[in-house]
Amino acid sequence: MKPEIRIHALSIREAIAWASRRVRASAPRLAAEVLLAHVLNVSRAYLLAHPERTLAPDEWEAFARLVARSEQGEPLFYLIGEREFYGMPFKVTPAVLIPRPETEGLVDAALEWARSRAYRTYAPLVFADIGTGSGCIAVALAVYLPNSRGYATDLSPEALEVAQENAARHGVASRLTFLQGDLCAPLPEPVDLLVANLPYVARSEWADLDPAIREYEPILALDGGPDGLDLIRRFLAQAPGYLRPMGAVFLEIGAGQGPAVLTLARAAFPRAVIRLLKDAAGLDRIVAITH
Predict the structure, then answer these.
(1) Where is the Release factor glutamine methyltransferase N-terminal domain (predicted)?
(2) pLDDT tier at 122 (50, 70, 90 boundaries)?
């Protein structure tokens, strides 16, 4: 969509006001500020400090183009190509799911377990992130567990390219090995820690998703089959064969899937300690399997 022609140059204040009436977002002004800061390669604080600064024609055109895409429903983080996760910026493209704040709880739980394990052994921890997508979970674990190495698997070669870029960006590429394939199958060895945020949207829930999610985010990263548990079911069946003795599994789930996934986990790990952890909203979010 070609941006509308302006008859005069716009200031930062005017551009934000104009965009705030057009962008499709829950917080339109914030979204407008983020888009303009991205175009100008400045911080939002700069925008607030220089409201009278005039946009050059090429800056206006780039900004108006992004606003037009937002009007069509394209998610903000795909427009700017980046999303913060666990305090770090991650590249995102339509090849990967946009990282969600809820998934930070998965990293929290895995880190807590890994750090407690450090009191029992000095051997480097080996972990695997199954269905890595943008690589945000694997990279965060590698950053915060410097005495570790990890694997990250994904079915999508395009997603793995994004994940590799994010690993390089945060200085952990030498300790992460990226493998294309289905779930745990590509792993060359058992690991101490398995983490996974797999697709868990049930087909019956698809119509209720935000249109921006349905239309722009990769279906491969969302579709969990008829009951939302297709990949989780297969992952839990595989996991015991890829886990070292005294290892752990942390798995993100949908808010209503706790009882069903607990049953699957107990069948796969009859001697393990299995807990259901809640997110900040009090919803079931993580299944923790420890020994």
Answers:
(1) 14-81
(2) low
Decide: 180 and 155 in contact? Cβ < 8 Å: yes
Q: Give binding residues for S-adenosyl-L-methionine as ranges.
A: 131-135, 154, 197
Same domain, 68 and 133: no
Burial classification of residue 171, based on how many CB atoms lie within 10 Å of its CB (0-12 exposed, 13-18 middle, 19 or more buried): exposed
Residues 235-257 pLDDT 10s: 999 999 999 999 999 999 999 99
Let me know if residue 5 belongs to a domain: no
**How far apart are alpha carbons 120 and 245 in whole angstroms?**
13
CB of 62 closer than 8 Å to CB of 21: no
Which of 44, 62, 80 marks a domain boundary?
A: 80
Q: Residue 114: exposed, middle, or buried by beta-carbon count in 10 A (0-12, 13-18, 19+)? A: buried
pLDDT in tens, 42-98: 999 999 999 999 999 999 999 999 999 999 999 999 999 999 999 999 999 999 999
* CA atoms lying within 13 Å on the CB side of residue 14: 10
Is the same domain home to 107 and 204? Answer: yes
Output the average pLDDT for the chain: 94
pLDDT at 13: 97
Q: What is the DSSP string of 92-146?
A: --TTSPPP-GGGHHHHHHHHHHHHHHTTT--SPEEEEEES-TTSHHHHHHHHH-S
Tokens of 272: 């393990």
Q: Report the binding-site residues.
A: 131-135, 154, 197
Which of 189, 80, 89 minimizes the C-alpha distance to 140?
A: 89
